[in-house]
Amino acid sequence: MSITCILADKRYFSEIFYPLTFPYICCISITSAMEKTIHQGRNVKRFREMLGIKQEALALELGDDWSQRKISLLEQKEVIEPELLEQIAKILKVPAEAIKNFDEEMAIFNIQHNYEGSNAHASNVITGTGNYHNCTFSPLDKYVEAVERNEKLYAALLKEKDEKIALLEKILNKK
Prior knowledge:
Elements: E1 2-9, E2 24-31, H1 40-50, H2 55-62, H3 68-74, H4 82-92, H5 96-101, H6 104-113, H7 122-127, H8 139-174
Antiparallel strand pairs: 1-2
Helix pairs in contact: 2-3
C-alpha cells in the first residue's frame, strides 16, 4: 500500500476553501499495491454461456475423462493450467488471452463510459455542430431508393412465378 501526500500553498485554493485558515492543504491518496487477479474459471464460464455451450458439451469436447461436474469445478478455479486453457480456448473458438485477461469490471466501465451521451464529441455527430458531421446524403433519399429496389425485386419475383406457372401448365397440357 502506498500513501501520497501533496502539500499545497493555501493561496491557490483560497477561493475554494475560503473558511479554512490552515497555511497548507494536504491531499492524501491511498492506493493498494495488491494486483487485481482475474478469475480465469469465471471467464471460461462467461464465454461458454455467451456462446450458448453447455457444460456437458464442453466436457464432451475435452475428452472422455471430463464430465459436467469436472467442468463446474474447473469454472470455480481462479487460475487454470496454460495447456488446458489453450485447449478450452480452441474449443470455444476464442483467444486464450481473452480468457486470461477479460475483466468484467473494466468491461462494465467501458460500456458505461462509451455510450453516446458520455462523450462530449459524440453529440456533435448527431447534431452536426462539430467537425464530426460529414453526412453527404439524405437518409430519406436512401430510404426511397431502398423501397424502389424492393418494388423492382418483387415485380421480378412475380414475373418469374408467372413464367413457372405457365411452364407447368404447358407440361400438364401435353400429358
